[in-house]
Design a protein that fits this description.
single chain, elongated, 3-stranded antiparallel sheet, 4-stranded antiparallel sheet, alpha+beta
């Protein structure tokens, strides 16, 4: 009696494969590569299960019962550690740091497995992690099982043979892909073949996860699911293994742009070969919406692309500004996330200069909360590769003007009087806020420079600065440059400030924080 052989073929270039399918294909590739080390011979696997891996394809073959082979594969691929953490052998769990393991576990349970019907949990657990120079207790759900481990029976029919018909896809397998309308379930449900469903099953292995602090509607941290753009399975697997071991605070971001650029920067630094100019990923944000407060839902989707120039600027911002830190308050530990790199990242992703839109919304003050980050802004201004050097000169001219305006205030003040520099800054911001067109901005610039008097940079480079000072290029761009100059100006430490004077009210750092 002849032995029946079964085969599954998956191709990265198949037209039906989405970004998440390709990520799953990479996750399966990474998993099979690790299983080869533990089970080098096909005779050690049920049904003589074997595979052939290339840069773009995966070929699986076995004999006998389909359910036995696939159930063994999934059982070996999706495990749970003795600490109740999701354990993915495809990520080489022997070398993966405990910080990364916890962050990946929290990310998967906050995106793919966000609903409790897709996993079983025994209790809330805690691990002490080293964050900077301090130790923080990180809380997480300890799992006893999850749906990926038992999915083989959904791929196979009652006789244990691989299904030949499409499967309806649930949200845990393809986050955000749900039935569009209950009244038209047949027409709006999402279906994939068993082969495609198998690829999706391994997407959590290759995807990345970041946490965002709370916002107005969310009482808990939000999660970002990053789906990489993959051109070569082998290349991605080698690069991913070099990037994974990060400390816990590195898995916190400010926005989708911040998370996306951080991932792309890591991937770019560890890429084996750069065969593709395109550097992209899809960022999906999961948080609580007003209409679904019981669970996290997909609230935003953004495709993040980057050029070498963008990544260079983003890396500079990461070096210039303080990254995520830990601090204690009311006997609780918090992760403090700096907002400024997130604003810079969002600007870069939208194709804007890194210093654009710092003025905030109409209901917030320009550059509010940057009191302790003036030196960092100065470093960005000085070290950024400006495409137009006149913009940097204009900021320098504004700094000289502020220095002269402040000096006049000091000269007019009595020895025992505290010079209210911040009051002058508030007035400048208020006047800038009333500039609604090029005409009103030109009037402000004229009054501003006239009050300062002679400004060397303006006198020596007036022809270069003329398009900016007149607002001919873009009056809003000029306004943003003035705000940047105001925020980055470092006051003279020899200012006449009495010992008993109070600190300036707007110099407090305001950032988002979330209980770990």
């Amino acid at each position: 009696m002849s032995v029946t052989h079964h085969k599954i073929q998956l191709n990265l270039n198949d037209r039906s494969m989405t970004w998440l399918h390709n990520a799953g294909l990479a996750g399966l590739w990474m998993t099979l590569k690790q299983l080869e080390k533990k089970f080098p011979a096909s005779s050690q696997r049920p049904g003589q299960l074997d595979w052939v891996l290339s840069s773009h394809t995966i070929d699986l073959s076995w004999s006998g019962c389909d359910l036995d082979a696939l159930d063994w594969l999934l059982g070996q691929s999706f495990r749970i550690s003795h600490k109740g953490l999701i354990s993915l052998p495809g990520l080489d769990e022997q070398t993966l740091s405990i910080d990364s393991q916890v962050a990946i576990h929290q990310g998967i349970t906050g995106t793919f497995l966000q609903h409790n019907k897709f996993y079983k949990s025994d209790e809330e657990k805690s691990l002490n992690l080293k964050v900077g120079k301090k130790t923080v207790a990180v809380q997480y759900k300890g799992l006893t099982s999850y749906v990926h481990q038992e999915f083989a029976r959904h791929l196979c029919g009652g006789q244990g043979q691989l299904l030949q018909k499409p499967l309806e896809i649930a949200s845990w397998l393809y986050p955000g892909a749900v039935m569009s309308h209950a009244a038209f379930s047949k027409e709006t449900k999402l279906e994939f073949t068993p082969n495609e469903a198998l690829a999706l099953l391994f997407a959590p292995v290759a995807c990345w996860y970041f946490m965002l602090p709370i916002d107005v509607h969310n009482k808990q941290a939000r999660f970002v699911l990053l789906i990489p753009e993959i051109f070569d399975l082998k290349e991605y697997a080698e690069c991913d293994q070099k990037c994974r071991n990060l400390t816990y605070e590195c898995f916190w971001a400010v926005s989708l742009g911040d998370a996306g650029l951080r991932f792309l920067a890591l991937r770019d630094e560890n890429q084996v070969t750069l065969n593709h100019d395109s550097r992209q990923c899809q960022a999906l944000l999961f948080g609580k919406a007003q209409w679904a407060s019981q669970q996290r839902v997909r609230t935003a989707v953004e495709t993040v692309g980057a050029t070498e120039e963008m990544l260079s600027c983003y890396r500079l911002s990461c070096k210039a500004f303080p990254r995520n830190i830990l601090y204690d308050k009311d006997r609780k530990s918090y992760v403090l996330v700096s907002n400024i790199p997130g604003i810079i990242a969002d600007n870069l992703v939208k194709g804007l200069p890194w210093w654009s839109r710092f003025k905030g919304s109409d209901n917030t003050k320009p550059f509010e909360g940057l009191g302790f980050e003036k030196e960092e802004l100065l470093k960005m201004i000085e070290e950024t590769q400006w495409n137009d050097p006149s913009k940097k000169l204009f900021i320098l001219a504004c700094h000289e003007a502020l220095r002269r305006i402040y000096a006049k205030l000091y000269d007019r003040a009595a020895d025992t009087e505290y010079v209210q520099i911040e009051r002058r800054n508030i007035r400048i911001r208020s006047e800038l806020g009333r500039c609604k067109n090029a005409t009103t901005l030109r009037r402000f610039i004229s009054d501003f420079f006239a009050e300062a008097g002679q400004i060397p940079t303006l006198q020596n480079h007036w022809e270069e600065l003329l398009p900016i000072t007149t607002g001919e290029v873009d009056w809003q761009l000029t306004r943003d440059l003035i705000l940047l100059a105001l925020a980055s100006y470092k006051k003279d430490e020899t200012s006449k400030k009495p010992e008993n004077s109070q600190p300036e009210g707007l110099e407090s750092l305001q950032t988002s924080e979330e209980t770990v």
